[in-house]
Amino acid sequence: MNIKFTLTALSMLSFSVVKAQQVNVAKAFASAAKQTDVLIKNVDSARKLKPNLVSPRTVENGQFKMVVSKDWTSGFFPAELWYFYQYTKDKKWLELAKKYTEDIKKEQFNKGTHDLGFMIYCPFGNGFRLTNDPAYKAVIVQAAKSLSTRFNATAGVIKSWDHNGDKWKYPVIIDNMMNLELLFETTKLTGDSSFYKIAVKHANTTLKNHFRPDFSSYHVIDYDTLNGNVRQKVTAQGYANESAWARGQAWALYGYTMCYVETKNKAYLAQADGIAGFILNSKITPADGIPYWDYNDPKIPDVSRDASAAAITASALYDLAKYSDNGRKYKAAADKILYSLSTKYTSKPGGNYGFILEHSTGHRPAKSEVDVPINYADYYYLEALLRKKKMDDFIYN
Question: Where does the signal sequence lie (predicted)?
Fold first, then answer.
C-alpha cells in the first residue's frame, strides 16, 4: 500500500470528531516532563543507597521499586529520556539519557533472556537513532547476537523463559514479538541477513500457533524442540489458558505491525488488522478505550484496568494507520485512547514518585503490580504522543 496515499486519506478525517477528544500533545509532554523530573530525583536518591539498582519500575504498596539492569524492564526509563530529548531537543534530556542508558550496557551479553529488545533496543536503539553514536550501534549488534543464541531452528522460535521447567519445556510468549525489532535493525546495520531470517521465522511460527480464529492470542506456547510440535497452549499472566490477556493482545498488535513495516509481508499486515479488530470491536472494553487487564475475567467490571496495554495499543495503531485501509478508524481509536490516558490516567503532579501514568496491571494472577504505575506504560505513552504529533503534522500542516 502506498503510504502517501493512505496518509492523504487520513488527512480527510472528519472534523466531526469531538474536540474534547483531541490530545494536547504539548501539554501532555510538559506534564510528563515535570513528573519525570520528580522521578529522576527519586532514582538518584535510591541509587545512593543501592548503586546496583539502575531503573525505576513501579510503585507497589506505596513503595518506590527500583530494579537491577538484568530486569526485563530496565531499559524503559532511559528510553523515555531519549523520547524527551527527541521532543524537546533540550541538551538536559540528552545528557540524562546518555547517563542512564550506560547503566544497561552490560546486558548486551546476556544470553539468559529474550527481553533484550526491551532492555537494549529501547534505550540504545533510540539513542543511536538520535545521535548516530557508533558505540550504541556496537551494543545493538552484540545484543542481537546474544538474542540469536536463544533461537531453535526445529521449533522455529526464540525461547522466552528458562524458568519453571516443571511447567513447560520450551516456552514462547506473545511478548517475544516485541524483541524482533532488534534483529531486523541489526541486519540493516550489519548487512548480515541471519538476524532478519530468525525474526521472520519466529514471526511466521508465532502467527501459525499463537492465535485463535478471532485473532486473540494465547500467552504461552510450549514447543517440542525434537519435532517442532506444540506441546501445550497456556497462560502465565492471563486469567485462564483460553482467555485474552489484555497486554498480550497489545504486544501482538504492535509486533505484527512492526513486522509488516520491516518486511512489507502482507500476511503480517492482515494479522495486525485482525488483532486490531479484536481489540477495537470488544464490547467488554469501557467507552474510554482502556481495557480491563484480561478480556475474559468473569469479575469485570470489578477488576483492574491496564493502562500499559492501552498505551502500547495506541502507539501501534498510529503506526498501523499509515499502512492499513482502516487507517482513519485506527487513528480515531488511538486518539481516543491517548485522550483518556492523558486526562484520566495520569498521576497527580508530583505523585506516584514521578511516574506518569497510573492504573496499569503487571501480573494479576501473582497479585503483583495490580493497579499501579509502571515504567513500560510511561514509555509507550510517550511513544504514542510522538507518533500522534508526527502524524498530525503530516495531515494538518
Answer: 1-20
- Active-site residue list: 115, 175
Say if pTM beats, i.e. exceeds, 0.85: yes
Cβ contacts of 233 within 8 Å, gap of 6 or more: 209, 218, 220, 221, 222, 241
pLDDT tens for 229-259 read 999 999 999 999 999 999 999 999 999 999 9
Quick: pLDDT tens for 110-162: 999 999 999 999 999 999 999 999 999 999 999 999 999 999 999 999 999 99
pLDDT band of residue 16 (cuts 50, 70, 90) is very low
| Rounded Cα distance, 91 and 267, in Å | 42
HEC profile for the chain?
CCHHHHHHHHHCCCCCCCHHHCCCHHHHHHHHHHHHHHHHHHHHHHHHHCCCCCEEEEEECCEEEEECCCCCCCCHHHHHHHHHHHHHCCHHHHHHHHHHHHCCHHHHHCCCCCCHHHHHHHHHHHHHHHHCCHHHHHHHHHHHHHHHCCEECCCCEECCCCCCCCCCCCEEEHHHHHHHHHHHHHHHHHCCHHHHHHHHHHHHHHHHHCECCCCCECCEEEECCCCCCEEEEECCCCCCCCCCEHHHHHHHHHHHHHHHHHHCCHHHHHHHHHHHHHHHCCCCCCCCCCCECECCCCCCCCCCECHHHHHHHHHHHHHHHCCCCCHHHHHHHHHHHHHHHHHHCECCCCCHHHCCECCEEEEHHHCEEEEECEHHHHHHHHHHHHHHHHHHHHHHC
Cell of 263: 518486511
**Alpha-carbon span 76 to 93, nearest angstrom:** 15
pLDDT at 19 over 60: no
